[in-house]
Every structure is written in structure tokens, then in C-alpha cells.
Amino acid sequence: MRKISSIFILCMLFPLAGLAAGGPALDLEKADNSLEDKDSLKRGAVLFSNYCMACHSVKYLRYNRIARDFGWTDEEVVEAMTYGQNRAVDNVTTRMLPGVDEEVLGTKVPDLSLMARLKGSDYIYSFMRGYELDEKTGEWDNRLLHGTVMPHVLEGMQRHMSAEEFKQATRDITNFLEYAGEPAKLQRHDLGWKVILFLLVLILLTYLLKKEYWRDIKH
Q1: Where are the domains of the chain?
Q2: What region, left, alpha or beta, does residue 28 occupy, with left being phi > 0 and alpha being psi -120 to 50 degrees?
Q3: Whole-model pTM?
């Protein structure tokens, strides 16, 4: 009976071990982006608009929210990201007409609002930098997602930039997409150190108050 129980437990554990393994690990580059870098966020927003919004959206964001968080006016964000073609209250949606993605690419292009939360910043950064040219076919493929239908939209930018400039540009886009996944994170980061400072002061005052109360009490 004990032997049967042991076999049963092992059979239960093997599938769990397979799930824990989760397949081969991806070789990701570190994005090293920072939401504290407002200049990077601004550059990333403009680059995303110029190179990504032909197909992709971040539809859970509005232009006026970006303006407020990045230190732009409503007029500045609309001019920087849409050349004055949208209103500040509009959602940040693709310029592609409905249905064109499935007709041309054979699949529906995903909205990228939550991509950083789903895949992580390192994945987005590595994916943009992961395109490799097949010398035999003359076609681009991506080392993280072989056979992807997404074209290498940053090819022109990569060709005209130095390696360091291209690295910074892809980091800026990654930074913007991490922000898009959770805009409130900017406020949390700003509020966090203030809360910690308040708690430290409160602990100090509590300690001094305790000493004052117990000063005349003999143990």
C-alpha cells in the first residue's frame, strides 16, 4: 500500500515539475529603462507614434494623460505625437483602418497597452533588437519569435543610427510601453519615498514618546 502511495505521489509531481520548468528560457537583453527619465519617455512616445502606430495602439491611454504625466501641454502632446491631427481627449489608437491588418498580415495586430505587463520590458527591448537578416532569402526574422509576421519597422532607423543611438531609441520605446502598461506607477514612485520618510519620522517620534512615558518608571 505504501509503495502504491509513493508511485501515486510521484505521478502527481512530474506534471508539476514540467509546469515549473516552463520551457526553454529566452535569452533576453536588459532594457535598463527608467520611468524617472522624463526625456526618455517623451522620446519614446514620439518614436512609438512615428514607427509603431501605423499598426499598433495603446488604446487605454489618452493624449491628455500622457501630457499631464510627461510635463507637456495638451497642444504639445498632440503636435508631437499626431502632428495636430487628433484631440487631446482622444485615445491613442492606430492609424490603420479596421480589417487591414488581417487582410495584409493574415492576423489581428495586438494592442500594446499591457504588453510590458504581460511580457516584461526586457522582452520588448530584446524583440525590437532581435531582428536578423537571412542572407539566403533576404528576409528579416526575429530570434525571439521565429516566423513572426511583424516586419522590421525599425530597419530604416537602425541603418541610419550608430549602434549606441539605436540601443537608446529602442530603450526609449520600451520605456514608453512600460509607462503605458501602468501610468499610475509614476505617481507611486514619486509618492513612495515620501511615505517611507513619513514612516521613519513617525518611528522616531514614537520612540521618543515611549522614552518620555517610561522615563520615571523603575523596572
Answers
A1: 25-180, 183-211
A2: beta
A3: 0.78
